[in-house]
Design goal:
single chain; mainly beta; twelve-stranded antiparallel β-sheet; globular
Length: about 200
């Protein structure tokens, strides 16, 4: 399975029940919600563009850090830290594939200050089946791809994201119940330490 899609591709459509809303949640409210997230843990289901499905647990520590741990027996891992994304392939004895976090659409919600109202960042904002869907891109580098964020209201909650990467691949990440707050070890996001641990 191509772990690169965990960061770089969009999420599959997934129906979510929530109180009906007459209009999409305002971008200012969504920005405030995202900026209020410091640390988050949640189970996730990943649907890849080829239809394959993976599960695991993710850890977010804003700004700039995320970790996708895939469920055993898979030892694959995707992490971002130190402005880099690293993909550890469980079937390879090679060092992880790495690239700048700034080149991934997920960087938009891991930024220190999320501002969905920034010019040319949001290219779609609508209500669909009781969810607010926002499609965002790097306004300076739209070729890097997009991220579609799916929220429910009452209270505002992020439910999934759909990343479309720079070559059009889509990956969907559906979030389970989020546990917010608390501390996380720095090693969760330390690419060098993880490489050493794996003997790479």
């Amino acid at each position: 399975m191509n772990r690169r899609t965990a960061i770089l591709a969009p999420l599959a459509l997934f129906a979510l029940g929530a109180p009906a809303a007459a209009a999409p949640i305002p971008l200012a409210d969504l920005s405030a919600y995202l900026n209020g997230l410091t640390t988050v843990q949640a189970d996730f289901t990943q649907v890849n563009g080829d239809g394959t499905i993976a599960t695991g647990r993710l850890f977010i520590r804003r700004p700039g850090r995320i970790r996708f741990e895939y469920a055993p027996p898979d030892r694959s891992l995707v992490m971002a830290g130190g402005s880099q994304v690293a993909i550890f392939d469980a079937k390879s004895n090679q060092p992880p594939e790495q690239y700048p976090l700034s080149r991934t659409p997920l960087n938009l919600i891991l930024a220190a200050n999320v501002n969905l109202g920034q010019a040319r960042m949001v290219v779609g904002h609508r209500e669909v089946e009781n969810t607010t869907r926002v499609i965002a891109q790097d306004p300076d580098n739209p070729a890097y791809g997009t991220i579609e964020l799916v929220f429910t209201a009452g209270p505002v909650e992020l439910r999934q994201w759909i990343i479309t990467d720079d070559v059009g691949n889509k990956t969907t990440v559906i979030l389970g119940e989020m546990v917010k707050g608390g501390s996380m070890p720095a090693s969760y996001f330390d690419i060098t330490a993880e490489s050493r641990k794996r003997g790479l």
